[in-house]
Amino acid sequence: MMRHLVRSAALLLLLALAGLSLLQEELRFVLAGAAISCLVEIGLALRARRGGSRASGDRSRVAAVHMACQEQDGAMSVALVGARARGAAPYVLLSRQLAGSVPGLPYLELSDRQWSLHGGIQEAVLSPGLLRLELDPRGAEVLGAARVCVTLEPDIEQRPLERSLRKILRGVSFTSERSMPEDQPSNQRSA
After folding, report:
1. Side-chain half-sphere of 36: how many Cα atoms within 13 Å?
2. Does the model's pTM come out above 0.85?
3. Of 6, 13, 80, 191, which one's alpha carbon is 20 to 30 angstroms from that of 101?
4. For 2-21, how does the pLDDT look when each residue is reduced to its tens digit (9 = 90+)?
5. Is 6 helix (H, G, I), strand (E, B) or coil?
6. What is the DSSP string of 80-124?
7. Do the beta carbons of residue 136 and residue 120 sit within 8 Å?
8. Which residues is 80 bridged to in the sheet?
């Protein structure tokens, strides 16, 4: 909206200077109007580029270098934290109220409380290097992504992560490569 207002003001200024140029019969007013219009466009492009680089940080993809699992006061939580870049470190927080009168839905937060929701996780898959959370349509709308992918550093322990995720994601389709049956060798003879 602001971009359109600035462009409209620049266009009106260019037209006014063009009219003044016709009245005064001098070319410098048109040249000044064209220069101002060019500067406005350059400023708008730089502003869009700066805003685009800020928005390009994909909240739904985190490279976790640290993990913290905690069970306290009837709630279970797992925090997967990435390396600190500019500003705060990106993170994915999963938690769930386990005790109480009504156990809650899984809670998912992506680097900020404004990017969070209760429920919304349709499926979860844990493999040695990756945690993938598939979101339902409501979750995808709220978080702006259909899936959340967390790459896991090799030193992150899978067993405590898997145990915690099983508690948090109860009721969600959860698969872990550790618990998947191994493929049977195909050395059976066909009759």
Report:
1. 19
2. no
3. 80
4. 778 888 888 888 888 888 88
5. helix
6. EEE---SSSPPEEEEEEE-SSSS----EEEESSTTSEEES-EEEE
7. yes
8. 67, 92
